[in-house]
Each structure stands twice: as structure tokens, then as C-alpha cells.
Amino acid sequence: MEIKIQKHQKKIRVLTLTDFVFPNHLHNAIEMIYVAEGSAMLRIQEKNIQMNAGDFTIIFPNIIHGFSSAAADMPPANKLILCIVPLVFCGPYTQTLIANLPVEPYIRREHLPKNISYAMTELAQESFDGQSQTVYSALAQLILARYVPEIPLRKLTTAEHPNLTEQMMHYISAHFQEKITLSDLSRELCVSPSTLSHLFSEKMHTHFRHYLNSIRADYAAQQIRTTNLPITQIWADAGFESQRTFNRVFQELYHVTPTQYRDEIR
Hints:
Number of strands: 11
CATH architecture of the largest domain: Sandwich
Number of domains: 2
Shape: globular
Structural class: alpha+beta
Distance between the termini: 17 Å
CATH class of the largest domain: Mainly Beta
Order of helices and strands: EEEEEEEEHEEHHEHHHHHHH
Largest sheet: 5 strands, antiparallel
Helix content: 40-55%
Strand order of the largest sheet: 1-8-3-6-10
Number of helices: 10
CATH superfamily of the largest domain: Regulatory protein AraC
Strand content: 15-25%
């Protein structure tokens, strides 16, 4: 899946994932995440959270987050159900979701209301059966009705709004297939390279080159999964300067070579 700043407005989307690496990103929808089997590593702003089977969370709008099943010291994430819900489907909870942040965003399995695990499983089933937006909306509303009262909230401060971070991520998502540098990004956003380096370090807990390569690798993984294009064409289209760099980055993120990844998908 290509990672970009998305503006989901019309449809609820449901995905069932078995192997995934989502670099830090943000969008103006909420994101419901339920680990059905195995484990996953979730990053929300400055927090790293290991989620295990039966755990659940909701990512609030415009919050930087990312998650991965690829971690050497964790069991594999065999099934993760992801539901992306535009705010127009959030009904009476919309303003609460926009104006607040959870103190702790996740609910562990032992404390999770049964309605939520049921609804997430039904969302996954509906994604295979018919993808009815009416069914999606009803189940999402049920989850919000059970989740919001369970989670302590705090007001979102002005300093926590993404602004420059959002501009930076938008530029990279639009230009990652090109040859871009931190200096290019600095000129585009009219800020110093040191300011951007600090932003990557403090807000996104990474550095420019690693983030750019993660976006490129994520795009390449999508192409490997969904097309029959030769891998040599895929890494070039993704913006990598050499196959050697592509192979190294891909293996660091997915723990297999691109060829092995395609064979496993098939």
C-alpha cells in the first residue's frame, strides 16, 4: 500500500493483513486496529506499543502513526484487521475525536468489550462477503459506542497539530519516486535542513533517508503484491538508485528478499 497523507471522505475501508510494514503516516480519518492473531508493533506519536492477539486501538485523526509485523524479537502477526473510517461516518463522536487524544489509546484483550472483537471480526467478514457501506457504518458506530467511554481523553493542544510535519510528509509522498534530498525538502518548505532533521528525530523517531526509503520500499511491496512487473522495474519506479540499495532496505523491513516476498504472496 502506498503511504501518503490521505483524505478519506466517502468510504469506509477494511483490510485484513498478514504481513505488513506501514511507515509513519497520518490521515484525516480514524483507524481501528484489531490484532486477531499473533502480534504487531504500533507507534503512535512518541510511543511504541506491542499489541498482542485480542488487543484493540483507535488512531485519532491527523496523528502520526505506523505499525509493522516485521520484528525479529516478536512472534509473527498472523492476522491484523484494519478499518479506516472517515469522520463523516463517526456520528456524535466526530467532535470528540477531532478535539481530543486518548491518554492510553489501546485496550488489552482482557479488558476489551466483547462487542468490539465481534464487530471487528464481522467487518473483516463483510470485506469478503459484500463490502456494504451500511454494514460497515453500523459496526463502526457500535465500536465507537463501546470504545470512547472506556478511554480517558485529554484535550489536543495546538502544539500537537501536525502542520509542518504534514507538509513534509505530503511532499515526500508526492515526490518519493524522484531523486530528492533533505536540501530539496528544505527549500520546498522554506525551513532549514537542521529544523527538518530535528523534526524527523523528535516527532517521527527516524531520519530523512530511512523514512524516504521506507516509503519507497512500501510502494515496491505493493507493486510486488499486486502486479507482475519485473522486480528490476519495480525498484527503479519506486525511486531507488540501485538494486543493491533496494535489496538491503527491503530485507531490513520485511526480513526476506523481494523475490522471496513475491513467492510467499503467491
